[in-house]
Every structure is written in C-alpha cells, then in structure tokens.
Amino acid sequence: MRIRFSQALVLGMGFLSLSAPASALDWKSAVAELSRSNPELKAGQQSLHAAQQSIRTSESALYPQVSSSLGYSYGASQSSVLAGDKGPDAKGSFTAGLTISQSIFSGGSDTARIDQARASATSSAVSLLSLKARLSNELKTAFASLVYAQRAVTLQEDIIRRRKDNLNLVELRFESGRENKGSVMQSEAYLKQARFEALQARQNLEVSQLQIVRLLGREGKSDLIASDEVPPGVPEAHPDFLTLARESPDSKQAKVQLESAKLGMTLARAGYFPTLSVSGQLGRQGDQFFPNRETWSVGVALNYPLYSGGKDSSALIAAQDTMQAAALTLENSDRSLVAKLQQAHGSWIQATEKLEVDIGFAKAAQVRADIARSKYNNGLISFDEWDKIENELISWQRSVLSSQRERVVTEANWELLQGKGVIP
C-alpha cells in the first residue's frame, strides 16, 4: 500500500507528460541489458577467466616436461684444422632427440605457486562480485535519477501552468484595484523562474539519459525514457552487521590476501631447501638424415643452495612482514565495515520514513493551496499569505521527488557495502 501511494503521489503529474519517447526502458530490461552489454562487466569476466587459466599454468610444474629437438651441425675436428686440412675432415652431423624431465622436490615452491594461482583466481572472482555490486549500485542510482529527472520536467511544466494561472489571477485583481503592482511583478518573476527551472530540468534529463546509455554499453546519445521505477525493498529491522561484514567482498578479499601472504612465506622458505629432479634423454646421431645411431641417457640432479648473498633471508623477512600486514588489514576491514553498514542501514531507514513524511506534507500542502487560492480570489487572505502557501506546495512537491530518489540511492548503497545487487 505504501509503495502504491508513493508511486501515485507524483502530485497529479502522472509518470510523464513529455513528448512521445523514442524508446522506453523498464527496470528489468535495463538490468538484463547491462548484464549482457556493459564493457566493464565483460572485462571483469575475462579477467576471471584468465586467472582461472593461470591455475593450469602453475599445475604444469607437477607433470613431466617433454621436449623434442632436431639439429644439424657442420665442422671439422681440431686435429684437421691444425693440419690445415679443411676438406676431407669437415663433415655434417644430424641429431634428433626426445627429453623427459620430472621435478621430484622443489622445496614446496611448486605447490605454493599453484595455491597462489588459486588464490589469485579467488581474488578475481571476489573482484567480479564487487564489480557487479558497484554496477548494480550505479544502475539503480542512474535509473532513479532518470525517473527523478523525468518527473522533475513534468513537475516543472505543472509549476509553469500554475504560475501562469496565478499571474492571471493577480492581474485581474490588480486591474480591479484590489492588488498592487508589486504583486504583479513578483508573479511575473515567478513565471520566468519556472521557465528557467524547466530548462534546467530538461538539461538534467539529458544528462541522466547519457548516464544510463553509458552503463548499458550503448553508443551515442539516446532519448530513452524510463517506463517504471526501481522496485523498493523493505529495510530489515535488526540485521547482523558483523556477519554481513564478514561475508562482504571486502572481507573476502582481505582473507584472500592473507592466504596469499601465507603462501608467500612458503615460497620464501623454499629457498632454503634442496631441489631434486630426474631426466631422461633418447636420441639419434649420424651424418645422414634421418640419423641412425641411437643415444640415451638418464640423470638425477640434486641441488642444495649454500649461499645466495642474503637474498633468501631478505625474502623471508619481507614475506613475514607482508603476512602480518595482511592479518591486520583483515581485522581492520571487518571493524570498519561494521560501522559503514550500520550507517548505511540507518540512512536507508531514514530515507524510507522521510519519503512518507514528505508525501504527507505534500498532500496537505496541495489541499491548503487549493483552499488558499479560493480565499485569495475572494479577498479573504493577502497576496503574501497566498504566495507563502503556493511556494510551500512547490517545495514539498520537489521534496517528494528528491526523497523518492534518495530512498533508492540509500538502498543501493546498503547493497553495495554487502557486495549484493541485481546483476546476476
């Protein structure tokens, strides 16, 4: 009931009395088009896909590495060169081979790099959630601003009509000697002001249209018109702010950074451990193609670092500092977000209630203005008294429009902090 009343009370304006729009846009269609066409969202999705592919790149270190080679060389032996005989002993040689190597132990660096790649992919996924929440916030705000701009144009047209009627009434009373010239001049100024504000409203509408066009990924200028409004939600009475904070993208991102920092410690420690690998080679050699003499070899390599110039110890200290900083960032993130959530929730509740208050005052102002007009026409109140009531009506009408937009904006901000929104 509350929603229907606030929608209906655009104070006799309807949804729009503008000229026929080139294209109408409803809220569901706007969400679907942004989800499909927004370039920033597409870039975020591609970044996530790239991060997921990097996991496979890191996992390749756990599998055997196979390579093949084919070569040809031409030259002479050392003895023939010293003897000055470059002819008979100079010959060509073909080689072909297949090499297989396998890392047995790398000090834990291989698995740590895989886990870091997974953490990076998780970070990209969380970033995509944050991006969707931000785009949802921007779309809700832009759509609400478009609706506000449309209604402001319609309201301003109604104000112009009202100011014209008022001017005519004041002029009639002036001609009959019941009003002074100052009241006529002030009424004329009100009409000029209304026309100027109508110009502002139309220009603001164009700006709002451009904002929507950008978010939807469209090119060029569009005179699209919103055919409905953002469906309002109902604020929860007592949300669990700490739980919401810990489930937010900011908190998840801080947790991923802490996990990545821990993996950095593993990588830093890997420099103190030996590495072990095995390899095998199977090949052919000969002076004709394809070479016919078979060769093979099998090897085991054990490498133990003795001294790296302090690089390993410095890397370990840096990794420890990074991990401690990440832990503190996570702790501070949750605390800070709880306060922001409380403030955003309170703002949403206040905006919802203020809209109802403004609607009540606007409705009362409309009735008072109708009564005041009749009284002024019959000479029962002065111009100044009537003028004050007229201006109060216009002020409350504008306040209703602003409150309708503010309710949507505060709800969108509340969702943004939680990493939620309408983008699937």
Model description:
- This protein has 424 residues and is α+β, with helices and mostly antiparallel strands.
- It has one domain (2-70, 92-418): Outer membrane efflux proteins (OEP) (Up-down Bundle).
- The chain contains ten helices and six strands.
- The protein has helices at 2-8, 27-37, 39-59, 78-82, 109-175, 181-216, 241-246, 249-270, 311-377, 383-418; strands spanning 24-25, 65-75, 91-105, 225-226, 275-286, 293-303.
- The strands form two sheets. Strands 2-3-5-6 form a four-stranded antiparallel β-sheet, with no helix packed on it. Strands 1-4 form a two-stranded parallel ribbon.
- The longest helix is centred in the middle third of the chain and has 67 residues, at 109-175.
- The radius of gyration is 38 Å and the shape is elongated.
- The relative contact order is 0.15.
